Amino acid sequence: MTTTDMGTLPLAGISIVEVSSFVAAPLCGMTLSQLGAQVIRVDPLGGGADIGRWPLSATGTSIYWTGLNKGKRSAAIDLRAAAGQELVQRLIVESDGIVVTNAASLSCIGHELLAAKRSDVIHVQLLGRGDGSTAVDYTVNASTGFPLATGPVNHSGPVNHVLPAWDVCCGLYAALAVVAAVRRREVSGAGACISLALEDVALATAGNLGLLTEPQVNGTQRQRLGNAIYGQYGQDFTSQDGVAFMVVTLTGRHFRDLVDATDTGRAVAALAAALDVDFADEGARYRYRDVLSGLFAPWFADRTAAEISAALSDTTVLFERYRDFAQVAEDRRVTANPLFTQLHQPGVGDYLAPGMPAAFDGAHPASAPAPALGHDTADVLREYLSMTTADIERLADANIIVG
Question: Domain of life here (predicted)?
Fold first, then answer.
């Protein structure tokens, strides 16, 4: 079983309006869609700032945009025009009264205005910073310490992460906030005004992981470790045929199995005696990681990747070879994974697309294609605002809508 009937999903029957661009807010909407909600994107005429964001398919369609908007509907409405603003307000109020947006300057869909029209409206506003000023993932990352603790040990400059971690975390926090607000409204009838700042997500994560607590209470801070793991023994090694592996030992048993597999028992015991330490202690393994890695490295260098995989597969050692994205896309963890189903995306082609990572009753809710810009405008206006064909044609003739 690889898909779930949309009618059985927890948010089935709920409609959500999304006015968004880039990563966090679209990811929130897509997550809610995968949980069964009907998510209606309100797009500006011609598309938002991210409509053509790289990577692009051979036809020029944004693989990025379609990837984050799977399963949604798109209504293209001119939000600069008063008539377009009124349409969007009505769409929010007359559907289920739930809107998710990162368009902070769009006062026509502000909470107070919408709440005056519908008291139980749920309004989720994603911000850059808590004070309302602008920030994006890359500037937030720079401001919260992570790039100066990332990269090779002796590197002196910042190293950015390719993953927009704060966008992703913020989008998932926002989806959780919507679910919580819907639940509260069901119980009490109360709406919600929710704001969520990208920078606050990053700061909370740094605090929760102890990265901000350590300098406050110890006067120390996390330093660069290269590919080592802080407080544990973990290191990358390269095989005889040039394949890189990440090896991790979180427990005493993991470490003993690594020692046995690499036939370094006597050397590790001698090292422990010379240093007067017990490598059953994870702190000792971390503190003397460089010396231990020097003992293990020749075993990896003398063996092929296939030999290393075969030997470590019979142990409890946590390991994996490094792969690039193209290799991952061809791996059975994608091709044989029920998380992924075949999807035809107009403008992009046929590919294996991920659904909801959480499985409900043993099945992953599958993804549907992203909409063409404005494809659903007329249907949405008929369905939610009871507009006639003549009404819709008048709006189209006035360039208030497209689609």
Answer: Bacteria
pLDDT digits (tens, 9 = 90+) for 361-399: 999 999 999 999 999 999 999 999 999 999 999 999 999
The residue type found at 45 is L
pLDDT cut 90: percent of the chain above it:
97
114 vs 110: CA distance, rounded Å: 6
Query: In which element (H, E) is residue 330 found?
Result: helix 325-330
C-alpha span between 359 and 82 (Å, rounded): 43
Q: CB neighbours of 349 closer than 8 A, spacing ≥ 6?
A: 57
Q: Which two tokens stand for residue 204?
A: 């909370």
Could you say which of 96, 167, 257, 376 is catalytic? Answer: 167
Phi-psi region of 82 (alpha: psi -120 to 50; beta: other; left: phi over 0): alpha
Q: How far from 242 is each of 78, 303, 367, CA to CA, in Å?
A: 55, 10, 37
- Per the annotation, the verdict on 361 as an active-site residue is no
CA pair distance 178, 365, nearest whole angstrom: 19
- Chain position carrying tokens 């969007």: 88
Q: What is the pLDDT of residues 281-301, one digit of tens each?
A: 999 999 999 999 999 999 999
